Amino acid sequence: xxxxxxxxxxxxVYLGVSRDTVYRWIDGxxxxxHKVGRSWKSKVAEIDEWVKSGRGADKEPxxxxxxxx
Length: 69
Fold this sequence. Notes:
Blueprint: E1 6-7, H1 8-15, H2 19-28, E2 34-36, E3 39-42, H3 44-53
Antiparallel strand pairs: 1-3, 2-3
Helix pairs in contact: 1-2
């Protein structure tokens, strides 16, 4: 039996992050998610490959507190 599709809530639990983080990754980091109706779904194998590729890692250092543009 092939693995089922995970919801954003399930992805967040699987990776130990918040739902907001998952949505940010979908929007800006090429997270492997597919729109199904109004929901985003992903396969575990695709998630694992994305994590191993390092695309979820922070690439920019955090801005120091009090920094202004």
